[in-house]
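Hi everyone, sorry if this is the wrong subforum. Our group has a chain we'd like a structural model of before ordering constructs, and none of us has done structure prediction before. Sequence below.
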Amino acid sequence: SMPAFGQFASRLLPAWLARYPRSLLADDLVAGVIVAVLALPQSLAYAMLAGLPPQAGLYVSILPVIAYAWVGSSMVQAVGPVAITAIMTFSVLHPLAAPGSAQYAELAACLALMSGLMLYAGSVLRLGFLSQLLSRPVIQGFVSGAAMLIVVSQLRNLLALEGGAGDWLALAAGVRRQLSGGLHPASVIGLSALAALAFARLWLAGLLCRIGLPDNWAGFVVRLMPLVIVAVATGAVIALDLEARGVAVVGAIESGLPGFSWIFPGVEQISLLAVPAALMALVGMVQNIAMAQALAIKRRERVDANGELRGLGAANLVAAAYGGMPVGGGVSRSALNVSAGAQSPLASIVSALVMAAIVASMAAAFSRLPLAVLAASIIVAAFTMIDLASLREAWSYDRADALAWLATATGVVFLGLERGIELGILLSLITL
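Answer:
Right subforum, don't worry. Here is the predicted structure as tokens:
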């Protein structure tokens, strides 16, 4: 009966775990801890970008991550709250409900549930090939346009501007007002953090290598910087009591882990969210499969597109019930995972468990983190998503591709994400 039990167990376990080589364990454990700690400020930031309470970003870094690790096909892709999914969530939902309200949170969970169901259904129907629907220049243009929108959306927090999410003109007027009246303490903190993060991103590694630090250590220090900056800024808010001087902070984060909340969207919600959920599933699928393939090529592995759909779908279904925020395959998260030395999905499971421990014990420590610093970290991450190199490359070999890139990016910036991606799908089909 023992071999029979073994067969049953190996069917329940994912293939990578059933054949897990013990030699990888130390690497995966270390990578898991590093990613959990370093992705923490990012998770808070992306939840805010999505218009949700910051702890939602921490919650969806736990069980959805384990779900993806269990059923996905990529060995080192990391799933979680990501910029592109967050800004899509916000752009779809803010016309429908007030960000921060209970109704908004419910719609966000419905969006995760519906896009998760679509992705999962796509894997069952073997629709992975649909990720080819969007040509590469269109996706690069879409991501670049979305990144520009992200930068603009965060300037308000970075510079502590009053007023709602107005247009470009309102933004310029706010900046002018502030410059004439002297800088707000929050914008001083935000701009300092932005300068420090940009310095770390662009020049720090080179400096450290010149001093004689090995490459991998230099890379690690650079990735540690956002966390250091968050800690310093939080310390400054507490020491100088800057809240009293009007510096906006994250605010009370409930300590302890959330319970499950089951959501069954009604007819009205389904009709409001069906198209956005489908677009989100499509963009999530394309980005996830492209990233997984790029990582697999480097590691000489194979990725199963339908397995990716299954993993991403499962992660979103779990996120709907636990955390209530749509998740995606993150470029920055996966890069972090790889550079931290992850060898298998066990690293993601470890990072989810470490995140759970942090949320259960010390989430309250982040309540005085200034919003301006989170905005600065989102802006720096978004700038790296603006891919002008791909535009130049397309321009040099195929003008049609370059025009598709430009049209999608400008469509996103001026018409919004949904119109932008619809335009992109149209252009992809035309160029095909």
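For your construct planning: The chain is about 70% helix and 0% strand. Residues 267-298 form the longest helix (32 residues).
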